[in-house]
Specification:
globular, single chain, binds S-adenosylmethionine, alpha/beta, 7-stranded mixed sheet
Length: 212
């Protein structure tokens, strides 16, 4: 998802109270920022933010941080927060490659990856958010029994993500190749913008939940 050149998006982000400016300064201090000890869950590549905003609205006793690389996309989430602010949600505009400089060891309770960019060329495999390089970063910031939940409609990306687990020391907890016809894994499912679009086209949605 890339909405190019939305005029003024960088300026809006720089002044928004919903965006954590200089997030590296919060490393190890996120609970202080939220003002409570509730678990912290993050979505990497949140897009326009529907998923994480719905979760934050449904779970006031969980803290959420939505991470998005592009200002023009994040802007949509900020606009929604301006009409319906949520006290348990902050946004960060950053590339997730820097995630370990923003969250301390075991500071995060769960990570959501939804419809991550596939980066189909082999030489770009390291950029895929479920790659072993990213799993190593997630390992640093997640609590010991923390989980990662990954959804996609991209068969090749899902196969790649499964193959990355063993070399990176992660285990499958649950997995489906057709989430929307799996009653158990579908329970409590919160749809993302991409999930809505692709499932309405009849594409199966793949999902795994993993732990170390
Ligand atoms: N998660 C949303 C959904 O399911 O509707 C958006 C999916 S969209 C295909 C992927 C999003 O991830 C894009 O908005 C993209 O900018 C963001 N993204 C990709 N790589 C990223 C990275 N390294 N760090 C932060 N965001 C990233």
């Amino acid at each position: 998802m890339r909405l190019r050149n939305v005029t003024g998006s960088r300026e809006v982000i720089a002044q928004s109270p919903y965006v954590v400016q200089e997030p590296q300064r919060q490393k190890g201090k996120w609970h202080t920022l939220f003002g409570n000890d509730y678990p912290i869950r993050i979505e990497i590549g949140m897009g326009k933010g529907r998923f994480i905003m719905d979760l934050a609205g449904m779970n006031p006793d969980i803290n959420y941080v939505g991470i998005e690389k592009y200002s023009s996309v994040l802007l949509r989430g900020i606009q929604k927060m301006e009409t319906e602010p949520l006290p348990n949600l902050y946004f960060i505009r950053m590339d997730a490659e820097e995630i370990t400089s923003v969250f301390g060891r075991a500071e995060v309770d769960r990570i959501y990856l939804n419809f991550s960019d596939p980066w189909p060329k082999d030489r770009h495999a390291k950029r895929r958010l479920p790659s072993r390089e990213f799993l190593r970063r997630y390992d640093e910031i997640l609590i010991p029994d923390g989980r990662i939940e990954f959804k996609t409609d991209n068969h090749d990306l899902f196969q790649f993500a499964l193959e990355e687990l063993e070399p990176a020391g992660w285990h499958l907890e649950q997995m489906t190749e057709d989430l929307h016809h799996n009653a158990e894994m579908m329970r409590g499912n919160v749809m993302t913008e991409y999930e809505e679009r692709f499932s309405s086209m009849g594409n199966p949605i793949y999902k795994y939940i993993i732990s170390r």
